[in-house]
Design a protein that fits this description.
single chain, alpha/beta, 261 residues, 36% helix, disordered N terminus, hydroxypyruvate isomerase activity
């Protein structure tokens, strides 16, 4: 894979604690070398197979590969359909199968990953009752096994995706036990211009006041610059200021680089 150096290395004044090894890659083909290039050993993955139901041996092979490389898996997506073709989850059409939930749990249990991003499906701007029920079922499966937290992420770009804003996400996380906010600054910034930056600044200003309130802070954070979804410093987003504000508000979790290489 040919890589451009200006996207590989974040600006020296903004360091990530983990890296996403799936963004920009074909479905089911993560680049596990990314962490080494950045001197990191913590990673997150989108669903790492082209099928929602890998065999136990496939799961175990990935676990062994992570161990061999000295990598710690901190975050894992659920099956999201063919994300390379624009799908963002399948819950608008069907529930995640029990075999998928079992495979997901097997990987989480063997690696210690405890943050799980759930794409809810492009079924329209409003969630259907069926989608809500299916989100509830996934969260119940995770919490029932004691695995961790299901993440809900505001996502830009698809007009028929029902979780586009912080308000959309917190409406879910406030009513579905076992879920929490995933804040990706690239998504929160919107489609360019100052409006998205102003909204993000306003949200962070609010966290400065309410950050100590349980459930207010995000459970997981990702960053990339804009335009281009490159590494910090390749675009115009005030990522250093935003991350500093988030830390000041009390966020102590990972800052994950999720940029296109």
């Amino acid at each position: 894979m040919t890589m451009t150096s200006h996207r590989e290395t974040p600006a020296p004044d903004l360091r990530c604690t983990a890296i996403n090894c799936s963004v920009g890659r074909p479905l089911g083909d993560p680049d596990l070398d990314r962490a080494r290039r950045l001197g990191l050993d913590r990673i997150e993955l989108w669903w790492p197979w082209t099928t929602p139901e890998p065999s136990d041996s496939q799961v175990d092979e990935l676990v062994e590969e992570l161990r061999r490389r000295g990598l710690t898996l901190i975050g894992l997506n659920f099956w999201g359909g063919d994300t390379s073709a624009g799908e963002r989850g399948v819950l608008h059409e069907a529930a995640l199968s029990q075999r998928h939930l079992d495979a997901h749990a097997r990987l989480a249990e063997k690696t210690g990953a405890d943050k799980f991003n759930l794409l809810v499906g492009r079924g329209g701007r409003a969630l259907t009752d069926a989608q809500r029920d299916r989100i509830d079922a996934v969260a119940a499966s995770v919490t029932g096994r004691g695995l961790g937290t299901v993440l809900i992420e505001p996502s830009k770009g698809a007009v028929d995706y029902p979780v586009q804003t912080l308000a959309d996400a917190t409406a879910l996380t406030g009513t579905v036990p076992g879920t929490a906010l995933l804040a990706d600054f690239w998504h929160l910034a919107g489609d360019g211009g100052t409006e998205g930056e102003e909204r993000t600044d306003a949200w962070l200003d609010g966290l400065a006041v309410s950050g100590s309130t349980p459930g207010t802070l995000p459970a997981h954070v990702q960053i990339a610059d804009d335009p281009g979804r490159g590494a910090p410093g390749t675009g115009v987003l005030p990522l250093r200021r935003w991350v500093t504000a988030l830390r000041t508000a009390g966020y102590s979790g990972d800052i994950v680089g999720e940029w296109v290489w």
